[in-house]
Specification:
Two copies of one chain form a homodimer. Chain A is about 40% helix and about 15% strand. With about 425 residues, chain A is of the alpha/beta class. In chain A, the strands form four sheets. A seven-stranded mixed sheet of chain A has the order 2-10-9-8-5-3-4, sandwiched between helices. The first copy, chain A, has a two-stranded parallel ribbon with strand order 1-12. Chain A has a two-stranded antiparallel sheet with strand order 6-7. In chain A, helix 10 packs parallel to helix 12 and helix 11 crosses helix 12. Chains A, B: Belongs to the class-V pyridoxal-phosphate-dependent aminotransferase family.
């Protein structure tokens, strides 16, 4: 290996308009370039406490245990599932896309007894459908996805908390793709656990996963407590319940690290924490609701533009996430060729899809730092150019006009 | 919560001379501030391939499967242990400090049958001691720590590969604290798996963990293969062995993501990958052996200075890691008061210790970007000032002169 073949990093410019990751806010990238701190430096633990407070704001929760898991969004999911599910526990997963399957997959690795209900991709569940399944299955946990980017659908969650309390079910949602761009009310909706990711509406790089835990689920986790040898003292007592089958994802240990005892566990990923702090700070500075409105504004402008281009959209638009749109690849058009031309000639990335939708839809995101008018207009214009180049006919100017009209109409509100 | 109480990030200046994290190389911090790429962008997958090649150089290995685990160093440990250990498998852990206990702890969470041998903290094992234990226990895996910062000891590993082959044992080492600052020869020593962390000798922020896997251990992992629903196709076959009880740490899936199939798993932590790439690039640019020599030079200069200050060191100096020194806290001196004065008045962090050594030794690191003459001289000078201030007598100028003498002597070589 010749080291001179590896120059300084220099990624090409890209406008990331897929289902995420999207471009990070430059202020977030800058926050990551600050020098490190020791993990027990008072300045560091102060930043950790600030991150807890800021994410309570983002999750709309008073939960004491609101913190970061050092890994990508599925690390947050797995930490919650491994810590809450004991082998043999019954869980219910309403599956409406690929990430519902992921919850099943992770729950099976936790040796749960996994039960599912399914709707066709492009739809969501009614509360009644979920309540019926809960009555039938009697699960210990309900595992939901709030926004499944594979189908672009947003599962309504507001009514599910009451149902879960009625049947004594712990209520979790994976808000990786939805948080910050769609309403999520952790406390008002009586969620027991929520996990998120940075690279979607939160506007940062993937690599750390914010989670929040209700007292109810913390109690379950505390009953599985084990403190590792080497740092264990005589004052530490084991919990009465079965241990958690992971050290890295043991939320009890992670709480002890974020809490006043500051028991050594992992070495907090300082740069990722700095980035997560800046993401939350920028979101709350804008106002969480203002940010959600912004996601809806630009998501709708994209939708109107795409429709006026003569393209069909995917799924039930009443339940579409604000931040991503499924666009049906028209007959006679090679979807991958379009993505390649978009990337190579316009430096714009749009997404493909998974499983049953693979090769059938593109997914276009408007989220985080890229939930902006210029991103929407640039993407629509480039996509129309590429489609025209490939002989797909559109009405000249109609798509752009529809987007402009939407912006004007919203401006008058 | 009033968002104006959360200003832009502005960590205080610190010189981090503890057992890690240490200050990151500014070029590494800069690499993290680059804009993101989509995870299947050819520019991104090219960087992933480059990272594999660069870490082959750092690990001194031809192993194809050399990649990053998205989490801190213990994520790398846990990914290897969870993927290689089946419930009930016998493992042998030679424990010579806190991080040996951590391997036991993680192995127990994998439901291994854990056997240990121990030496007092401050010592290491002879190959014979380990061979005897292997003969007695007949483990499937030998789990070792190369450098245990809790005791500052470096376990010699060169002779263990042959022993492991002889008894058909898989050979793993945790090189979190040692890699880059001490010799590690993955292939020559016949290691089957090694994991590392960024925040020690590699000079980056914690948050991603480089690992390398031999063909022998890859074969074990491949027999446990499962591909998740939602991206599984008819061409995918399950392995014949028991599944891995984690999705996030399933090295089979992680290989499929880093390999030519690029099967979707997590969303690679792009900024962490950029930082890891820059760390390896800088190490190989300096020359891995030159970097190790540099760690030894500055580690020894610190040692000579500390001894000339009239302080005792901890543990068997023949087996000390190059990059960290245990210093016995002298009678009548409050160790925490010294650390506080160092931090508050000199902005220098030195470390405390764990378990039986808590309150008994300080740990002073010279590693990564901080394996530098100015760091050593500044730290010695500040420590002497603080000790004098607290009425601990030293011979004026002796510590600094001893360090200078060592640098001069080495310069003449």
């Amino acid at each position: 290996m010749e080291i001179s073949q590896f120059p300084q990093i220099n990624p090409p410019h890209r406008l990331l308009m897929g289902p995420g990751p999207v471009n990070a806010d430059p202020r977030v990238l800058r926050a990551m370039s600050y020098q490190l701190l020791g993990q027990y430096d008072p300045a560091m633990t102060h930043y950790m406490n600030e991150v807890m407070a800021l994410y309570r704001g983002v999750f709309r929760s008073q939960n004491r245990w609101t913190m970061l898991i050092d890994g990508t969004s599925r690390a947050g999911i797995e930490a919650i599932l491994l810590s809450a599910i004991r082998p043999g526990d019954k869980v219910l997963v309403p599956v409406f896309g690929r990430f519902g399957h992921l919850l099943c997959e992770i729950a099976r690795r936790c040796r749960a007894d996994v039960h599912t209900i399914e709707v066709p991709w492009g739809e969501v569940f009614t509360p009644d459908q979920i309540e019926d399944a809960i009555k039938r299955v009697r699960p210990r946990l309900l595992l939901t996805v709030q926004g499944d980017t594979s189908t672009t659908m947003l599962q309504p969650l507001a009514a599910l908390g009451d149902i879960c309390r009625r049947y004594d079910v712990l209520f979790y949602t994976d808000a990786t793709a939805s948080l910050g761009g769609n309403t999520l009310e952790t406390d008002a909706w009586q969620l027991d656990a929520v996990s998120a990711g940075m690279q979607k509406c939160l506007g940062g790089p993937s690599g750390t996963s914010p989670v929040t835990l209700s007292e109810r689920i913390v109690d379950v986790i505390r009953h599985r407590r084990r403190v590792e040898e080497g740092i264990r003292t005589e004052a530490h007592r084991d919990g009465s319940d079965e241990m958690i089958y992971s050290n890295y994802f043991d939320l009890g240990m992670i709480m002890d690290y974020w809490g006043p005892e500051r028991l050594n566990h992992h070495t907090e990923a300082t740069s990722a924490l700095f980035s997560a702090r800046e993401c939350a700070r920028l979101i709350l500075q804008e106002g969480l609701d203002n940010g959600i409105t912004r996601h809806k504004l630009h998501g709708d402008a994209l939708l109107h533009g795409i429709q006026a281009m003569g393209l069909e959209t995917f799924g039930d638009l009443k339940h579409k996430m604000n931040n991503v749109l499924g666009v049906v690849i028209p007959q006679g058009i090679n979807g991958e060729q379009v993505r390649k031309l978009m990337l190579e000639d316009f430096a714009i990335e749009i997404g493909t899809s998974f499983g049953p939708l693979h090769g059938k839809i593109w997914r276009i995101g408007t989220m985080g730092y890229n939930a902006r008018k210029d991103c929407v207009m640039t993407t629509l214009s480039a996509l129309e150019s590429v489609l025209n180049y490939l002989k797909f006919p559109t009405t000249q100017g109609a798509a752009m006009q529809a987007a402009w009209d939407h912006y004007c109409a919203m401006d008058r509100h």
